[in-house]
Design goal:
By secondary structure, this protein is an alpha/beta fold. Among the domains are: 21-84; 92-171 and 530-560 and 570-621, no CATH class; 264-389, no CATH class.
């Protein structure tokens, strides 16, 4: 059987069918003509004295032909009408609640459709044409912005609600989109549903979006739980909670790792190791005297010296290890240092160290205390040079109100601001909006975000090892490249077992590469993000990354050939020919260039292997 094809409409041989939905709607013209013919026949029958039967037959046949053409005309019309795009969609909280309740084990991500080969084919065919010849002035009536191609979403006339199974969301999620493409609106839809489910939500927002903060606060109030809302922002200390980011850990050494990570990167590993040992020694000293370390006090001992901490630590250890003689040893050291009224703290610490080394057996020696003593007796000038890299970062976190916010005084009853930490927030199913204020001070904002993520890693470890009947925790990180570190990788690797559900948002892949120091380390982060939601992306490298994670397909290409040949021996004789061939070409399922043309609030996503094209609503009220 031969293929006979006119303007893309296959008449026979479905095996070779080729869809061209952007041609003129000939079926509509034909249906209209047959309807006019039927109407004309009936009018003639009514208005003339001619025999009626032929006209009735004519009207019936014309109506039948119109009905034959009408389904194809309507189908093509419905496909082409959406080429102008769609108006913005708004949804109220009450309607969102109804939508969520329909599928309690999934989250709603707007409306859209599964993107398949036929949509890639339609996009390919449309890109070959002058789009203005297909679209009309009705696009001016839309409320959508002029950014991007509104016809991308119109490639499929039938929309349905897009739901992501929560078990799939636990596989970690990457959100990519340039400025103004809709990342914040996507965050709103996700976090509001999480709050409605009674889950913990922690938002790390470098720019401190006020609208996002107000939305979260209103949701908590509407649910009758304003106490669930926690807000932290360096520029608004009076509205903020006090957040102890050193509260949670499994081993004390984690705190040294956490604080060392905020120092500027150094090519000299010896400097980094020295700083880590110095901070760890101070932390160990705090635990010897049964006090909780804080960023302010760690920075104080690094700068001012650890004489007092050493004296307190050695005294406490002597009282614990040799209680029968400890008080006499401490009194002897005190008298030899000038007594209480004229105490020389440095000499007092040295005298206690001598007593410690003289009186204790080898088996009673503390390696943690030895480390602190070694730091105390280290050359002061050399010590100062080795820790210069960490002091600026610690100073940024301990200056002014920020110092009181991050190193809360649990005994200060005058400060009415609540003291909380990540473990407490998670245990109570609360919400934390953490603005980093990175716009005026990106370095401090980056340090804050890194500390918060490191603290969450410790909480995740405790939940994984000891947690029972735990509920999911939703961690949303905007502009993630400003806060990513090794802790983030640990959270992505092991967070699923602790029901830590992460959403990592960035503008470009290059931002992550720059933050992590190399493409290989960036891929370690990206390789743990199984679901990808891409809004408009204008960076070519990021576009290539996105489409590279989507499957490929084959595009049908129809080419035509026409030739006329004259007989060289007789110019009156000639021959002509017309040929049509159909071939296939491998292509990305979603063209990379279209990623840069997605309108605001529209996205392409890979959700557990399924490719969907969607558009987001705006939460109203």
């Amino acid at each position: 059987m031969y293929l006979r094809q006119v303007e893309g409409v296959t008449l026979k041989a479905e095996k070779y069918a080729f869809e061209n939905p952007w041609r003129p709607n000939y079926e509509k013209v034909a249906a209209g003509a047959w309807i006019l013919a039927a109407a004309g026949a009936l009018a003639t029958q009514q208005l003339t004295t001619y025999p009626s039967q032929p006209f009735i037959w004519m009207a019936g046949i014309s109506a039948g032909m119109a009905m034959l053409r009408l389904p194809a005309a309507v189908k093509l019309y419905n496909l082409q009408k959406n080429i102008h795009g769609m108006n913005l969609e708004f949804i109220t909280l009450d309607n969102l609640v109804k939508t969520v309740n329909k599928k309690p084990h999934a989250q709603w991500l707007g409306n859209g459709f599964v993107w398949e080969q036929r949509h890639a084919q339609r996009a390919f065919e449309l890109l070959k044409r002058d789009i203005s010849s297909i679209t009309t002035n009705s696009i001016k009536k839309l409320e959508t912005s002029n950014i991007g191609y509104p016809w991308i979403h119109g490639l499929e006339p039938i929309e349905e609600k897009i739901f992501q199974n929560l078990d799939q969301a636990n596989l970690m999620n990457l959100i990519v989109g340039t400025t103004g493409s809709g990342k914040t609106r996507l965050f709103e839809i996700i976090l509001v549903q999480a709050i409605l489910r009674g889950e913990t939500v922690i938002i790390i927002d470098p720019k401190g979006d006020k609208e996002l903060k107000n939305t979260v606060k209103r949701i908590c109030e509407k649910l009758g739980r304003p106490d669930k809302f926690n807000f932290f922002h360096p520029s608004f200390p009076e509205e903020s909670v006090r957040l102890d980011l050193l509260r949670n850990f499994t081993r004390p050494t984690e705190l040294a790792t956490r604080l060392t990570a905020i120092a500027p990167e150094s090519d000299n590993a010896a400097f980094t190791a020295f700083v880590w040992r110095a901070i760890n020694n101070i932390v160990q000293g705090f635990f010897i005297i049964n006090e909780r370390p804080s960023i302010v006090m760690i920075k104080h001992y690094l700068e001012a010296g650890v004489e007092k901490l050493v004296a307190d630590a050695v005294s406490t250890y002597l009282l614990k290890t040799v209680p029968s003689t400890a008080e006499a040893l401490i009194s002897e050291a005190l008298i030899g240092s000038g007594g209480e009224d004229n105490l020389n703290t440095h000499k007092f610490a040295m005298n206690l160290i001598k007593a410690y080394r003289r009186e204790l057996k080898e088996s009673e020696i503390s390696s943690e205390l030895d480390g602190l003593i070694s730091m105390f007796t280290h050359n002061a000038e050399h010590f100062g040079k080795m820790i210069t890299n960490i002091l600026p970062a610690l100073s940024q976190l301990t200056t002014g109100q920020l110092g009181k916010m991050l190193s809360p005084d649990y005994d200060d009853l005058q400060d009415r601001r609540p003291i909380t930490d990540n473990a407490k927030i998670i245990a109570n199913g609360q919400v934390l909006v953490m603005g980093l204020d990175s716009l005026p001070d990106p370095v401090t904002g980056s340090s804050l975000g890194s500390l918060a993520l490191a603290d969450l890693v410790a909480v995740a470890g405790a939940r994984y090892n000891f947690g029972t009947d735990i509920k999911p925790v939703n961690i949303l990180i905007d502009e993630a490249a400003e806060v990513l570190n090794v802790s983030t990788l640990s959270l992505l690797n092991k967070g699923r077992g602790a029901l830590m559900r992460m959403y990592v948002a960035t503008q470009t892949i290059a931002d992550i590469e720059s933050r992590m120091g190399s493409p290989a380390k960036a891929l370690q982060i990206l390789g743990n993000l199984n679901n990808i939601i891409s809004l408009r992306v204008i960076d070519p490298a990021t576009q290539e990354f996105i489409v590279g994670n989507l499957p490929k397909t084959r595009i049908d290409i129809v080419s035509h050939k026409q030739d006329v040949k004259a007989d060289p021996n007789d110019p009156h004789l000639y021959s002509s020919g017309f040929g049509e061939t159909k071939s296939h070409e491998e292509a990305f399922l979603f063209p990379s260039e279209l990623l840069g043309q997605l309108p605001n609030l529209e996205f392409i996503a890979k959700l557990s292997g399924t490719i969907v094209k969607g558009r987001l609503p705006i939460l109203r009220g």
